[in-house]
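Progress report, Aim 2. The chain analyzed during this reporting quarter is listed below.
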Amino acid sequence: MTLQAERAKHGAAAYAEMRGSLPSPFPRTMGPNAGRYLQEVVESGLTCDMIGRFERAFAAAMGVRHCVATPGCTPALAALAAASGWAPGDEVIVSPVTDYGTLQGVIRENYIPVFPDTEPGTINLSAGTIAPCITDRTRAILAVHKTGLVCDMDPIRALAEKHNLVVYEDVCQAVYSRYHGRLAGTLGNAAAFSFDSEKTMGSDTGGCVITDDDALAERLRFVAHSRGAVQVPHFGRKHVVPGYALRMPQCTAAICLAQLEIIEEQVAHRDRMARLLSRLMAEIPGVRPLPIPDYQDVYSCWMFGISLEDGAFRCSTEEFAAQVAAEGVTGAGMGEYYLMPAALPFLQENAAGGVYPYSMPPASRRYGYDADSCPTARDFLTRFIRWSSFCEKYQEQDCELAAGMIGRVAERNRL
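Predicted structure tokens for the chain:
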């Protein structure tokens, strides 16, 4: 297929054309030691162990034994998929509302993604929506904490233990969120993080996997850092499995280390502002903020979102979002593309055509992907408006300004 379209942008370039009256993440607030750590890398002639220093510091901050650093969040999740060692055609249950980066590794390793629906009124899956999707080919549950809202993980873990499944977390939007006092990323067998420049703990790029599983950590380093190679005496390297070179650069590690030193305070501020903004939004008739669960002690909000009540306004959600953006809410828009069963036409085509791994074998049944397979998530996203410019720069007056903008749009369009 030949596509003549503008390529997607990321980082500062994606925000450069956004206009509005609210704070933008860029230029990013940098940890005060960032320059010193970068200078160490240069002055050492690239011999300092900055990657190891960051890995040890982040593992200690998360309270786990292992951190394996990667160049980004998509590579982190790809490394986790590659290190899992399941067979082609095995199934991984994945949150249906996410980004392609969550799935790339699953797809490239020839596992088959299975999408449960979301819990009504939310943007995340639950144990109740996962349970009907489990088969004898299911190997793992990959739970995405979308926007920074943590999935209800205790019931998911209990369900996984009942069926002898692995639980992985995608924490790319939820660094330092807390669930019943526990940090997101420590609620399953392993977790992937993002330090890409637009994310909450923004470096130039970067990511990692954390785990308490010694064998998995070693497998991650072997497959993702050492390219699946072993040293054979009198011969040299032999690549015994198809591996990767998904290593975090030293300068990225330096910035990540500096950002780690300021992130907890920033997240605490994000939590306060997100809760204030949610309260203000809830006062606007017809507008509902994303619900913050009672079990969530800290909401590391990366993306703020609202949904419109059915029949409350005369305009469409898309028109409402455009008016919100015109009022000055930086980066406001819809997010229907987050629905993965609808956003991956190549997956739909491969499943329909029986393209490997959808051929039988290795697949043991037929699969289909479309928006109607997750009707709750589909309907939710048709009423959902988000802005990814939410950041630690927000102050109380910014929350009040945003609420005023959305309130004015709501009044103009109210039935």
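The longest strand covers residues 138-144. The two ends are 44 Å apart (CA to CA). These observations will guide the mutagenesis work planned for the next reporting period.
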